[in-house]
């Protein structure tokens, strides 16, 4: 609750910092470290069976690559190429996958926002790519630059968000030829966190690479030395990689930049109706692409993305955060640990509005990320309608939950030293006192518990007296206060100028072709 | 969605049965079996440290028992009793706890609703004991028999609910002297699942024991042979057990009935501000009571209940489903496995209305139950406002989520046999087809995926066209349809008559004293 947050000032909350003039108190920026052992539904035999099945798909059935350059490379590498079908020998695949690092960093223009991808680290990125917005004042609307910028401000504002993933909403009021220029300009000026390049045509990818390099004040050599941005590509399941996605992935890999490969495998639609089967297909598609990238750029930083869920078999509607989705994510985690690859998943839901269903689906998705040992959680904040809507209310509701997950992973909660066990405090308070005033409590007053910015823990009468606002309504109120207070991060003026010049020049040149 | 559920009839859904004339399709009755390895935040050393601290509290600080009979028993057992303070030697405690079974059954009047408590089994019970109701038509109201009966009907209706726990709402329009008679009569006639006796005075407990015996058509000897009901007692933290609770617990234990001992330890209020410390206090209180019960009735079926959460340190308001709550439940699970005791927890939240916050807090609580290896989840459906409100909308929203958890624990989802791996299907469909029409899909059409009764997976436009109802509104619509269709379970007429006669006789006698 905003009002309460303001009243509370003075730093009493656990792991919370007070921004100057801020609408809320929020947790510090941190790279969460997953201290939990993963939940593993498969035994060793099950992992081996999925692994073998994936190899069989790559070897016997083959993957389609609708990209001539990739086909030529596969041919050169000794793979069996027939038309667009590529069959990858299991030894080749495993040799290539072994080259992929299990952990790497990405450094944005502000080095303090560097992130670690892989190991036990967890990163959270904003919602990406919905064509529409939904907010409680306006309902569903087609995406605009105005909303794009609002979401980028929220992305920058919340410390629990580490990555500015794809466009938080597609700004269809910007012409597609220059959209990437305007959008990346907005992203790089409104935000100083890691950004992403869509692999939607070589010109766009090259423009974005150049913009990230200029924003960071880097020479080409400096840029190529370590990851500064990433792209995320989806296969066209079943069994297919399209031209522009693979083109972009290869461009980034060759420059030492990060590539996430995320097959979108809805069980029962473009993937088998069984969850292990959908994961097999997903792995075959993903590993084939990663093998290609490792062949052309050994050691290129790659991430496998799981996007396996199920559909409603009667309507074909996608579902997310379901029991099947949770198991798919956990299994993908087992397989990625087997391969030594970082894993990406999502905070996904099918709900249309920021209500109870939205939150049970999202929280299930987020738990599966923790349980699956997921390293990067896409769409962490703001996603609705299976990814067709970005919502500011949902963005805040998700951030409240993300903060709780980040606090959950704080090992201090389970510290069993003498202070943690508190036997002396139990003795001091005895059977007739209470702990509010105990020394043991006072010593831990500012750090003991997670403190929410949106949850309302008042009793019903106080809740009613303060307006009786349901969660989404409170979020609606609060996101506007946050936007009103937003301040852009510092940006080196020379870098900013070079970036602006580049954008202006490319716009004058007409941007990128739109007929790909 | 009710409408969609109705249209869908014909048994296409996974693990779903169609009731005659039912508003929804729901999953069959089942006793879920937790196939996941628990999440364990503590290492062996941490478990040992909490164990030792708990013993130290019992041995050096002692627990207050405000019950003369219990004090006499402890004295006889060789414990050091000073006034109401009892110090329990660690060897005595461990010897007594070792007598407690790690698994047992409770059989209600309908033997088909027998439940297994302990091991890897999970049971879910309805909301218990709120003094108020909240529904979207009437807002918050003081509890009535009308609403008590409505909740009992929902408890009976949903197969995912195994236990009729305490009163789902306190019916304050029934005089306290006869409330237990009227309430248990309603429970035993409207529902055929396991019921519970409040330990609020010996007459009440004895009445309820007798009613459960009569409803089951059992002789005293038959009744005493195995658990037929249970009680749940709370300590008065810190370090205290009150007279009536201990009295009721001993009465049930002596008749071989089940006792749940659930210290209510809010960290920072009646328990230490650290989570391990609050668990230490909780264990000391709980184990001391279980030791007493095992001394008077060796092998009595006992359950340890964790009710450790945190408060808002500024307002003192309790919070649930928080990061600290989740860790407390996981730690309690580790300790209960160490002691070989079944564990009870809750589906708790602090939210006042059935909104997004209610669901993120509840879903966190439920995940902690799965991760903690919890055996009995109290308040599984319908709880709001930290237990001060029972809500029919929340009841349905929770049941939707409970069904998903029960489906999640179904091992078939992760089956990696040849059919599960689906390589033949991947070959059949190839790179250009889809899986809707594949043989592999058709063979699994009715069982592949969880099918919801309340979630709306339509796209936004279809959602808007069907009324644009947020989840709580859909639940409001649907619970009325369910109540309209409710039919009481069969009840042997002789048993029913004996039960009715008993209730009438005891009411004529004035019921139970109300001045305890």
Summarize the structure.
2 copies of one chain form a homodimer. The first copy, chain A, has 19 helices and 22 strands.
What would you say this structure looks like, in words?
The structure is a homodimer of 516-residue chains. The two termini of chain A are 47 Å apart. Chain A is α/β, with parallel strands linked by helices and 516 residues long. Chain A is globular. In chain A, a hairpin with a 6-residue loop joins strand 17 and strand 18. In chain A, the strands form six sheets. Chain A has a seven-stranded parallel β-sheet. Chain A has a four-stranded mixed β-sheet with strand order 4-5-3-13. The longest helix of chain A has 22 residues. Helices cover 44% and strands 15% of the residues of chain A. The interface between A and B is large, with 128 and 128 residues.
